[in-house]
């Protein structure tokens, strides 16, 4: 009897110890799983989607870290059917100003969540005035986090997160306080009335280029004009400037401007050899586009017109993005007079 009792007692003790070990193991697994779940989603369950981010430039990143603001690059002017002359960055995205900011002195009142929706335009050595933009209007603002923001006419410049393609102006008029920037820092034309803080536009703005001193010759489909800054450049039958795109190729001849690009840059039609004036006909040709249409080529490179040029003599597309250039008499980018 005594031996049997001892045997059952030993079995019970072993079962108790096994149970304690099992409980300790379960508790350890539970506590170690909790931190990893939080780490996976910063408070979300593991595997759940992260909050949507992005700025409309094709990435899906969250808001940029301090010092990572996207710079403006070579600024340009786009003529908008509703807003008139609109300032854009080097990629053609509309730049905006905020009524709650101040221009004298320049100060930004957009930070935190506001700066996520309206990313400030960074200012660096590569942010420069392109054709139609006065360099004297550009300035710099040091934000509270130490980053440098571009100012135009004293006004801090921003992009809008909902603008997903070059030429979008979805931020215009948002909240009654956000407006597209004109090249001189004032509000774009449609919002100009009632702007008591805006600096008046100069009488002779850089966006209105002089008329050509040698208009397109009668009947000519391709000729030269004397541009006051660029020298002799090629123009079409209407006196509109022709351009080359640096991303196109000459051998084999190929256009890399399609889809969104073609909304801003229109393929120039071929010309008749008998209607070329002042240009070596050997430079002039044509190429067939993927859709079967034919496009003028100059020096074995496709030629385009720019929708931002409103009048004969305008050359506002020259230098945009560092990849678009007018065409001189030799079929190359102009170097000026």
UniProtKB/TrEMBL annotation:
Listed Low complexity bias regions: 196-215
Leader peptide range in chain numbering: 1-33
UniProt keyword terms in alphabetical order: Lipoprotein, Signal
Statement: the UniProt record of this protein carries the keyword Translocase: no
Pfam family, one: Lipoprotein_15
Region (Disordered): 190-220
UniProt cross-references to NCBIfam families, sorted A to Z: SCO0930_lipo
Name used for this protein in its record: Lipoprotein with Yx(FWY)xxD motif
